[in-house]
User: What shape does this take?
Amino acid sequence: MIKAILIDDELHCLDTLSILLKEYCPEVQIIERCHSGREGLLAIKKIDPDLVFLDIEMPGMNGFEMLEELSGVSFAIIFTTSYDQYAIRAIRFSALDYLLKPIDPNELINAVSKVITQRHLPMAEQFQMLLKQIRNKDHQFNKIALPTAEGFELVPADQVVRCEADDNYTHLYLKNKTKITACRTLKEVEEQLHDFTFFIRVHHSHVVNLNEVTKYIRGEGGYLVMSDSSSVNVSRSRKEALLKLF
Assistant: This one.
């Protein structure tokens, strides 16, 4: 069983999440329900949970401020939030997980499944990166955090030539000829790259950096030749959108 703490100042949110977990994620045992960041801190120190569901927007002490109070994080964490574009961007860049309210059961199942299957807990650097981004809202993020089998890597987005799907993993090919295999689907990596406008999905299996495209070869969908001499197929349904950018 996964020992979990739920932290949210809204009672109806705690009730809804509790019901969803019991129905869809029976492997999660709710040990404590907390109504504030302060209560959450005490519960974490007392229980030593495996997983914490943490609301971001709370009066007095929000979820990010609560994290700053911890000397270390020895548990998995899933943020819960109403739509907050900046907070979501920061969480994505740090390769941490979140659920949008109202919580979708399928997204909850997927998030819990990641906790069960991941080999490593989030690293301190990921939380440091997240908190730094939250404190400096005018800061333009230029790196993304990529979870790997060994931990995670921070990669400047403009160094990525292309991304290729491989089931629940994504291979990222960099300008320095190295390859990183991220423990994330291509859709999730695409979301991390969303704010970098030079990336575009050209195929269900490929996202490319437009700045690294050297040639387009016509065809039913055609294909791209990248700066690393690789070829990337363009799907027929995405061809028009791609050509408009050129």
Summary: Helices lie at 11-24, 37-47, 63-69, 85-93, 105-117, 124-135, 186-192, 236-245. DSSP finds eight helices and 15 strands in the chain.
